[in-house]
Design a protein that fits this description.
Layout (H helix, E strand, L loop, with lengths): L1 E6 L9 H14 L3 E5 L8 H13 L5 E4 L10 H6 L3 H7 L6 E3 L3 E5 L15 H11 L7 E5 L19 H10 L4 E4 L7 E3 L1 H4 L11 E4 L14 E8 L6 E10 L4 E13 L2 E9 L5
Parallel strand pairs: 1-2, 2-3, 5-6, 6-7, 7-9
Antiparallel strand pairs: 1-10, 4-5, 8-9, 10-11, 11-12, 12-13
The protein binds fe (ii) ion (FE2) (2 copies).
The site of one fe (ii) ion (FE2) has 6 residues, from loops.
Length: about 290
């Protein structure tokens, strides 16, 4: 079993210090094998905010971690900076690597920067980025789980007509199907959802027998919630070849108990047509 902690949209500058402490404590207890952070580390890409984000990263449990930027990590006020030196502060304070890759024995994780300089909100993915991520995942052990991380969502519940997907997500999904990607992770919407790609892309001629799990994380520690409490995902990858499983546990901030607790679990198994939902249930809390 491999465990990934997936956190997103920490938005330093709008963080709640109690939640930051609670998240660090919960991550220590969870003992993940790796930590993924899917963007929006800051609120307005200010130096002071990046310094706080960097201090947070240094306080994380000492396991491999992979980070991608979000749209809030690009300067919103300085247009010249945005055009001439994109993600300058992100690269200085967080990471200079915009094509991060973690190649662990049981899981390979490729990060893609979907932030675009002139579009402050919506994300985009291009052919070159897809090719780089596919080449990275091609180095993984055959039995390793394959994971793609973006800030903006590659897929959403089919009934969500309000939020845009990453521009060019459909050809990217088709290309990633050939790389047998198991899981897409993202954030940006500050709400947690888990779906399979076959609901939207299963009818496409290019991806008829492909179905990957897509998990979005809410905002982990910021006060910018959108109708849901602060949350993050603890993801279990079960490598048993006879019954491989992905379980996404939503870990939610409990206002009364002042700690992060599991509230919902969603599980998927892999068959000949990819991953399909097997279980979605709330987690009962002891009173
Ligand atoms: Fe955000
Ligand atoms: Fe965002």
């Amino acid at each position: 079993m491999t465990t990934l902690a997936h956190i997103s949209d920490v938005h330093f500058g709008r963080e709640d210090p109690d939640l930051v402490d609670g998240l660090l404590h919960a991550l220590t207890l969870a003992r993940p094998d790796a930590i993924v952070i899917s963007g929006d580390l800051t609120q307005r890409a200010r130096k002071s905010q990046f310094r706080c984000a960097r201090a947070f990263l240094r306080a994380l449990p000492p396991v491999p971690h992979l980070i991608v930027p979000g749209n809030h990590d690009v300067s919103a006020t300085n247009l010249i900076d945005r055009l001439a030196r994109p993600l300058k502060r992100y690269r200085r304070f967080i990471s200079d690597d915009l094509t991060p890759f973690l190649d662990l024995p049981t899981v390979a994780i490729a990060g893609i920067n979907t932030v675009r300089l002139l579009s402050t909100k919506d994300g985009r993915i291009n052919r070159n980025q897809v090719a780089i991520a596919r080449e990275q995942l091609g180095r993984a052990a055959p039995e390793a789980f394959r994971v793609i991380v973006t800030h903006h969502p590659m897929d959403l519940p089919i009934e969500d007509l309000k939020h845009p997907l990453v521009v060019r997500s459909a050809p990217a999904i088709a290309a990633f199907s050939a790389s047998r990607v198991d899981l897409f992770l993202s954030g940006h919407l500050h709400t947690g959802q888990t779906v399979v790609t076959s609901s939207r892309y299963g009818q496409a001629a290019s991806t008829p027998h492909f179905s990957a799990v897509v998990a979005h994380a809410g905002t982990a520690v910021s006060t910018r919630t959108r109708g849901e409490p602060n949350a993050w995902n603890l993801i279990h990858l079960n490598h048993n070849p006879e019954s491989p499983e992905i379980s996404v546990d939503q870990i939610t901030w409990d206002l009364k108990k002042k700690k992060f607790l599991p509230t919902h679990t969603t599980s998927f198994t892999r068959g000949p047509n990819g991953w399909s939902l097997t279980r979605s249930e709330s987690v009962r809390q002891d009173t």
